[in-house]
């Protein structure tokens, strides 16, 4: 997607604010000798912002508005070392609420709905994002927070909850409990707004069939407001994102070059009107692509695909970027395969080779199946892997996370 005149102007306003506040990015820009961008090309040359920059700014180095305007902070969970603190002004909080309200509206949720919110409240942005958006919409909220399944189900029945806000794993747990307790006829749920972890089609189908509800994927990250910056619509072909608040680029995660619309790469986000902590070209390490063209729903908002994984999982084979999720999705189209597979990458006689081992039972033609799988994978990644079909139970299984990709080149 190309920058509009308005977006360019908004970015320049963000740049001026960052420079006057002398924030980490303001300093970076001074080093680069940039105080303004006048074109797409100039913008695409700006340095990226990384999570490590944000961490280095701990505790309040990201604060770009005067302190008297800051009304709240949130923090992203730091798995290693210091967390990231994001300051919000009143306007940021309201903008986030309006974006989340738009998410609910895109999912066809109205002020007559009753929304049960199960993600956590507190420093984390999830619960409060669902809450603020629902209040902006005028819907009745049931702010449960996580856990306590007995009480969740009781409230869901008594309050006649129609919308569930949840992570995919908790939605699945609730679905299973409802089936186990035989209380499905007392549940009034119609829709689920499911937060941003990557989840497979199988899990999605199970939740939607068990609960008999429509599911909507919502996207977001604490560094950029929180959940609510994008959501799927009823046509379920990608997530609409709010390009009046954020600008999205897709880049090659290795070279940092911008990729054309439609190509898979890393999501990079620039905030357009944020006050508390604006971010320019923030690398999310989430993988997706811009979906070209207009959605059947008629929305003017552009779309990104549902998240395909993280850049850390990427492999470069024969000069092509390949993600395990692409292989996994192709394999999922073959009902005759088990869920186990193994990818081995090696370097033989000056060439990269990718071998994929898959399992099936003895009743199929192994050679024919291997050929069909190789063709299907080629159509996704652009080159033909060597596929070997083995008998069920041959591939290693382990208690925790099975290592599915073995790179023998290094
Ligand atoms: Zn749509």
SSE blueprint:
Blueprint: H1 5-20, H2 24-32, H3 40-44, H4 51-56, E1 70-76, E2 84-89, H5 90-106, E3 114-117, H6 126-137, E4 140-143, H7 149-158, E5 163-166, H8 168-181, E6 191-194, H9 201-211, E7 214-221, E8 226-232, E9 239-241, E10 246-251, E11 265-271, E12 282-288, E13 290-291, E14 303-304, E15 309-310, E16 315-317, E17 320-322, H10 324-332, E18 341-348, E19 351-360, H11 366-381, E20 386-391, E21 405-407
Parallel strand pairs: 3-4, 3-5, 5-6, 6-7, 18-21, 19-20
Antiparallel strand pairs: 1-2, 7-8, 8-9, 9-14, 10-11, 11-12, 12-15, 13-14, 16-17, 18-19
Helix pairs in contact: 1-2, 5-6, 8-9, 10-11
Bound molecules: zinc ion (ZN).
Residues 233, 235, 240, 295, 297, 299 line the site of zinc ion.
**Nearest-angstrom radius of gyration?**
23 Å
Distance between the termini: 37 Å
Question: What is the 3D shape?
Answer: globular
Question: Helicity, in percent?
Answer: 25-40%
Number of helices: 11
Low-confidence segments: none
Structural class: alpha/beta
The strand line-up of the biggest sheet is 4-3-5-6-7-8-9-14-13
Strand content: 25-35%
Q: Please report the total strand number as a whole number.
A: 21
- On the 0 to 100 scale, the average pLDDT is 92
Hetero groups bound? zinc ion
Largest sheet: 9 strands, mixed
């Amino acid at each position: 997607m190309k920058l509009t005149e308005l977006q360019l102007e908004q970015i320049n306003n963000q740049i001026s604010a960052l420079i006057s506040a002398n924030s980490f990015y303001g300093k970076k820009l001074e080093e680069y000798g940039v105080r303004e961008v006048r074109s797409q090309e100039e913008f695409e040359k700006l340095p990226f912002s990384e999570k490590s920059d944000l961490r280095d700014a701990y505790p309040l180095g990201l604060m770009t508005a005067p302190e008297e305007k800051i009304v709240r902070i949130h923090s992203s969970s730091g798995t290693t070392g210091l967390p990231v603190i994001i300051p919000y002004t009143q306007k940021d909080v309201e903008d986030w609420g309006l974006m989340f309200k738009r998410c609910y509206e895109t999912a066809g949720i109205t002020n007559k709905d009753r929304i049960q919110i199960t993600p956590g409240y507190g420093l984390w942005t999830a619960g409060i994002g669902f809450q603020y958006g629902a209040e902006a919409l005028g819907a009745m909220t049931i702010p449960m927070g996580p856990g306590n399944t007995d009480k969740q189900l009781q409230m869901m029945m008594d309050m006649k909850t129609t919308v569930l806000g949840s992570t995919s794993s908790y939605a699945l747990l609730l679905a299973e409990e409802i089936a186990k307790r035989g209380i499905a006829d007392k549940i009034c749920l119609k829709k689920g707004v499911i937060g941003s972890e990557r989840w497979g089609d199988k899990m999605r189908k199970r939740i939607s069939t068990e609960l008999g509800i429509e599911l909507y994927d919502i996207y977001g990250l604490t560094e950029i407001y929180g959940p609510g910056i994008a959501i799927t619509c009823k046509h379920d072909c990608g997530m609409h994102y709010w390009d009046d608040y954020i600008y999205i680029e897709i880049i090659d995660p290795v070279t940092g070059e911008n990729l054309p619309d439609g190509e898979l790469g890393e999501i990079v986000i620039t905030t357009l009107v944020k006050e508390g902590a604006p971010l320019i070209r923030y690398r999310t390490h989430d993988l997706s692509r811009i979906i070209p063209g207009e959605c059947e729903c008629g929305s003017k908002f552009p779309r990104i695909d549902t998240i395909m994984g993280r850049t850390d999982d990427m492999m470069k084979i024969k000069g092509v970027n390949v993600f395990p999720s692409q292989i996994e999705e192709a394999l999922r189209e073959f009902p005759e395969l088990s869920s186990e597979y193994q990818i081995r990458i090696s370097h033989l006689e000056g060439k990269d080779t990718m071998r994929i081992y898959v399992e099936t039972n003895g009743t199929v033609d192994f050679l024919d199946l291997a050929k069909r799988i190789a063709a299907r994978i080629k159509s996704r990644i652009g080159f033909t892997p060597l596929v070997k079909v083995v008998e069920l139970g041959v591939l290693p299984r382990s208690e925790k996370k099975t290592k599915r990709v073995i790179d023998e080149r290094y």
